[in-house]
Amino acid sequence: MGKPFSVNSSRYDPYKTYRFLVYFGGSTSPVAGVSKVGGLKRTSEPIEYKEGGNAIVLKGLGRTTYDAITLERGVTHDSDFQDWADAAQVLDKGSPSTSLGDLRKEMIIVLQNERGDPVLRYIVHRCWVSEYQALPELDAGANSVALEHIKLENEGWERDRTLTEPAET
C-alpha cells in the first residue's frame, strides 16, 4: 500500500474534481448549477541578469500574472451570471456600473471531499466579467444541454488556510 498524505494520515486518494461550490461576493449561498470551473493558474516572469565576475546568468522574480477563470453552467432562470456580466456592459448608462460590489467581486471556490465536507477553499480577488455567453449555438438536431459561461479576469487568488481538514471516517 502507498504512503498516506502527510496532512491526513488516513487518506490515500486525492480529492475528486466533481465536488465543489462557487460563491460570488459575500454571498452565503452558492451560485446555482455551476458545472465547470477553469483552473487556477498563475505565472511569474523570470528576469535574467548578470553580475560582474560571474559567468552564470542569474534569474530573479518578475511580474506575476493570473489567468482568467471560466465558469460554466446549464441555462436556467437563475440570473447570477447575467447580472454580473451586465455590470460591465456599456449601454444607456454610458459607462460600466460603478455601484459598490457590482463590477468587481471576490469569488470563493470550495473543493469538497466525497462526503461533501469542505477541504480546500480559494479566494479569488477583484474578479470582473470579461466575456459572457448567454446561449450556445442552438441546434434542433443535437442532444445536449444549453450552457452559459462567463470568463472572469482577476487580480490574484490565495488559499484560505483557516479551513481545517475534516476528520475522515
TrEMBL record:
GO molecular function: structural molecule activity
InterPro entries: CHP02241, Phage_T4_Gp19
One Pfam entry name: Phage_T4_gp19
Protein name (record): Conserved hypothetical phage tail region protein
